Protein backbone atom coordinates (compact mmCIF):
# COMPACT_ATOMS: atom_id res chain seq x y z
CA UNK A 1 0.00 0.00 0.00
CA UNK A 2 1.39 3.38 -1.05
CA UNK A 3 -0.05 6.61 0.34
CA UNK A 4 -0.28 9.58 -2.03
CA UNK A 5 -1.75 12.09 0.40
CA UNK A 6 -3.38 12.52 3.80
CA UNK A 7 -5.60 15.49 3.03
CA UNK A 8 -7.18 15.81 6.48
CA UNK A 9 -3.96 15.46 8.47
CA UNK A 10 -3.08 19.02 9.44
CA UNK A 11 0.11 18.42 11.45
CA UNK A 12 2.89 20.58 10.08
CA UNK A 13 5.38 17.77 10.63
CA UNK A 14 5.76 14.29 12.06
CA UNK A 15 7.30 15.60 15.29
CA UNK A 16 3.97 17.24 16.17
CA UNK A 17 2.28 13.84 15.94
CA UNK A 18 5.11 12.09 17.79
CA UNK A 19 4.80 14.64 20.62
CA UNK A 20 1.07 13.95 20.97
CA UNK A 21 1.75 10.21 20.98
CA UNK A 22 4.50 10.63 23.58
CA UNK A 23 2.12 12.60 25.81
CA UNK A 24 -0.11 9.53 25.72
CA UNK A 25 2.84 7.21 26.52
CA UNK A 26 3.03 5.89 22.95
CA UNK A 27 6.45 5.77 21.36
CA UNK A 28 6.82 6.22 17.61
CA UNK A 29 10.04 5.75 15.59
CA UNK A 30 12.11 8.86 14.90
CA UNK A 31 11.10 10.78 11.79
CA UNK A 32 13.93 13.04 10.77
CA UNK A 33 12.67 15.57 8.23
CA UNK A 34 9.98 13.33 6.71
CA UNK A 35 6.50 14.60 5.88
CA UNK A 36 3.56 12.69 7.39
CA UNK A 37 2.98 10.92 4.04
CA UNK A 38 6.65 9.92 3.73
CA UNK A 39 6.72 8.75 7.34
CA UNK A 40 3.58 6.64 6.97
CA UNK A 41 4.87 5.16 3.71
CA UNK A 42 8.08 4.18 5.50
CA UNK A 43 6.12 2.44 8.28
CA UNK A 44 3.95 0.64 5.74
CA UNK A 45 6.96 -0.44 3.65
CA UNK A 46 8.54 -1.88 6.82
CA UNK A 47 5.21 -3.58 7.62
CA UNK A 48 5.29 -1.83 11.02
CA UNK A 49 1.51 -1.77 11.18
CA UNK A 50 1.42 -1.25 14.94
CA UNK A 51 3.38 2.01 14.63
CA UNK A 52 1.32 3.05 11.61
CA UNK A 53 -1.89 2.57 13.63
CA UNK A 54 -0.49 4.68 16.46
CA UNK A 55 0.70 7.36 14.06
CA UNK A 56 -2.70 7.71 12.36
CA UNK A 57 -4.56 7.58 15.68
CA UNK A 58 -2.73 10.75 16.73
CA UNK A 59 -2.48 12.37 13.29
CA UNK A 60 -6.15 12.23 12.27
CA UNK A 61 -8.45 15.06 13.37
CA UNK A 62 -10.81 14.01 16.21
CA UNK A 63 -13.93 13.30 14.15
CA UNK A 64 -12.02 11.29 11.57
CA UNK A 65 -10.16 9.41 14.31
CA UNK A 66 -13.36 8.55 16.14
CA UNK A 67 -14.95 7.45 12.87
CA UNK A 68 -11.98 5.17 12.21
CA UNK A 69 -12.35 3.67 15.69
CA UNK A 70 -16.06 3.15 15.01
CA UNK A 71 -15.33 1.50 11.65
CA UNK A 72 -12.89 -0.96 13.23
CA UNK A 73 -15.23 -1.61 16.16
CA UNK A 74 -18.12 -2.35 13.82
CA UNK A 75 -15.96 -4.81 11.84
CA UNK A 76 -15.17 -6.72 15.01
CA UNK A 77 -18.60 -6.67 16.65
CA UNK A 78 -19.11 -10.08 18.11
CA UNK A 79 -22.33 -11.91 17.52
CA UNK A 80 -24.44 -11.37 20.59
CA UNK A 81 -22.61 -8.19 21.63
CA UNK A 82 -24.20 -6.69 24.72
CA UNK A 83 -26.73 -3.90 24.48
CA UNK A 84 -24.26 -1.66 26.33
CA UNK A 85 -21.53 -2.26 23.72
CA UNK A 86 -23.97 -1.65 20.86
CA UNK A 87 -25.19 1.54 22.54
CA UNK A 88 -21.59 2.76 22.98
CA UNK A 89 -20.84 2.21 19.30
CA UNK A 90 -24.06 3.92 18.24
CA UNK A 91 -23.35 6.86 20.56
CA UNK A 92 -19.85 7.30 19.10
CA UNK A 93 -21.19 7.14 15.54
CA UNK A 94 -23.91 9.64 16.44
CA UNK A 95 -21.30 12.05 17.80
CA UNK A 96 -19.31 11.78 14.54
CA UNK A 97 -22.40 12.66 12.51
CA UNK A 98 -23.64 15.31 14.95
CA UNK A 99 -20.72 16.51 17.11
CA UNK A 100 -22.78 18.31 19.73
CA UNK A 101 -21.94 18.62 23.42
CA UNK A 102 -24.96 16.48 24.35
CA UNK A 103 -23.85 13.72 21.98
CA UNK A 104 -20.27 13.93 23.27
CA UNK A 105 -21.45 13.45 26.86
CA UNK A 106 -23.90 10.72 25.84
CA UNK A 107 -21.02 8.79 24.28
CA UNK A 108 -19.16 8.76 27.60
CA UNK A 109 -22.27 7.73 29.52
CA UNK A 110 -22.66 4.79 27.13
CA UNK A 111 -18.97 3.89 27.44
CA UNK A 112 -19.24 3.89 31.23
CA UNK A 113 -22.07 1.34 30.98
CA UNK A 114 -19.63 -1.14 29.38
CA UNK A 115 -16.69 -3.03 30.81
CA UNK A 116 -14.26 -1.05 28.57
CA UNK A 117 -13.14 -4.31 26.96
CA UNK A 118 -14.53 -3.62 23.51
CA UNK A 119 -13.37 -1.39 20.67
CA UNK A 120 -16.84 0.20 20.74
CA UNK A 121 -16.28 1.32 24.34
CA UNK A 122 -13.05 3.06 23.39
CA UNK A 123 -14.59 4.63 20.28
CA UNK A 124 -17.18 6.22 22.61
CA UNK A 125 -14.46 7.34 25.02
CA UNK A 126 -12.60 8.88 22.06
CA UNK A 127 -15.72 10.87 21.18
CA UNK A 128 -15.89 12.20 24.75
CA UNK A 129 -12.18 13.00 24.86
CA UNK A 130 -12.39 14.82 21.51
CA UNK A 131 -12.75 18.22 23.15
CA UNK A 132 -14.92 20.15 25.54
CA UNK A 133 -14.78 19.80 29.30
CA UNK A 134 -14.18 16.55 31.12
CA UNK A 135 -15.90 17.89 34.25
CA UNK A 136 -19.59 17.22 34.85
CA UNK A 137 -21.93 19.93 33.53
CA UNK A 138 -22.20 22.97 35.77
CA UNK A 139 -18.71 22.60 37.24
CA UNK A 140 -15.63 24.58 36.23
CA UNK A 141 -14.33 23.38 32.88
CA UNK A 142 -11.46 20.91 32.69
CA UNK A 143 -10.38 20.78 29.05
CA UNK A 144 -9.54 17.40 27.55
CA UNK A 145 -5.81 17.17 26.83
CA UNK A 146 -5.10 17.12 23.09
CA UNK A 147 -3.52 13.67 23.14
CA UNK A 148 -6.41 11.85 24.83
CA UNK A 149 -8.50 11.30 21.71
CA UNK A 150 -5.51 9.63 20.02
CA UNK A 151 -5.00 7.38 23.05
CA UNK A 152 -8.60 6.15 22.87
CA UNK A 153 -8.55 5.76 19.06
CA UNK A 154 -5.28 3.80 19.22
CA UNK A 155 -6.76 1.63 21.96
CA UNK A 156 -9.94 0.93 20.01
CA UNK A 157 -8.07 -0.01 16.84
CA UNK A 158 -5.46 -2.12 18.67
CA UNK A 159 -8.16 -3.97 20.59
CA UNK A 160 -10.19 -4.58 17.43
CA UNK A 161 -7.16 -6.28 15.84
CA UNK A 162 -6.74 -8.83 18.64
CA UNK A 163 -10.26 -9.28 20.01
CA UNK A 164 -10.90 -12.37 17.92
CA UNK A 165 -8.42 -14.37 15.88
CA UNK A 166 -5.37 -12.55 17.28
CA UNK A 167 -3.15 -14.58 14.94
CA UNK A 168 -4.61 -12.46 12.12
CA UNK A 169 -3.84 -9.14 13.85
CA UNK A 170 -1.40 -7.86 11.20
CA UNK A 171 -3.81 -8.72 8.40
CA UNK A 172 -6.56 -6.83 10.23
CA UNK A 173 -4.31 -3.86 10.94
CA UNK A 174 -3.44 -3.65 7.26
CA UNK A 175 -7.14 -3.52 6.38
CA UNK A 176 -7.80 -0.96 9.14
CA UNK A 177 -4.95 1.19 7.86
CA UNK A 178 -6.44 1.19 4.35
CA UNK A 179 -9.70 2.41 5.93
CA UNK A 180 -7.86 5.12 7.91
CA UNK A 181 -6.06 6.36 4.80
CA UNK A 182 -9.40 6.54 2.98
CA UNK A 183 -10.91 8.48 5.91
CA UNK A 184 -7.84 10.77 5.98
CA UNK A 185 -8.63 11.67 2.37
CA UNK A 186 -12.35 12.34 2.85
CA UNK A 187 -13.74 8.83 2.33
CA UNK A 188 -15.94 6.80 4.64
CA UNK A 189 -13.43 4.02 5.24
CA UNK A 190 -16.18 1.48 4.93
CA UNK A 191 -15.59 0.18 1.41
CA UNK A 192 -11.92 -0.58 2.06
CA UNK A 193 -12.54 -1.99 5.51
CA UNK A 194 -15.07 -4.49 4.24
CA UNK A 195 -18.08 -2.79 5.83
How is this structure best described in words?
This protein is 60% helix and 0% strand. By secondary structure, the chain is mainly alpha-helical. It has one domain (1-195). The protein is globular and about 45 Å long.
SSE blueprint:
Layout: H1 14-23, H2 36-45, H3 49-59, H4 62-75, H5 83-97, H6 101-112, H7 119-128, H8 148-162, H9 169-184, H10 190-193
Helix pairs in contact: 1-3, 2-3, 3-8, 3-9, 4-5, 4-7, 4-8, 4-9, 5-6, 5-7, 6-7, 7-8, 8-9
Whole-number average pLDDT? 94
What form results from the Cα inertia axes?
globular
User: What distance lies between the first and last C-alpha atoms, to the nearest angstrom?
Assistant: 19 Å
Proportion of residues in extended strands = under 5%
Number of domains: 1
Largest sheet: none
Output the helix-strand order: HHHHHHHHHH
Count the strands?
0
Low-confidence stretches: none
Number of helices: 10
| Rounded Rg | 16 Å
Please describe the structure with a list of short key phrases separated by commas or semicolons.
195 residues, single chain, mainly alpha, 10 helices
Summarize the structure.
With 195 residues, the chain is mainly alpha-helical. The protein has one domain (1-195). The chain contains ten helices and no strands.
Amino acid sequence: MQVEQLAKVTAANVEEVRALAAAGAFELPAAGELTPVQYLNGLLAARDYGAAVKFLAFALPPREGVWWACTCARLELEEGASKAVLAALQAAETWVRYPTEDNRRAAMACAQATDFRSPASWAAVAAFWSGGSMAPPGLPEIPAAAHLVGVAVAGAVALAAVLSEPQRADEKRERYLAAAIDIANGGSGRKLSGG
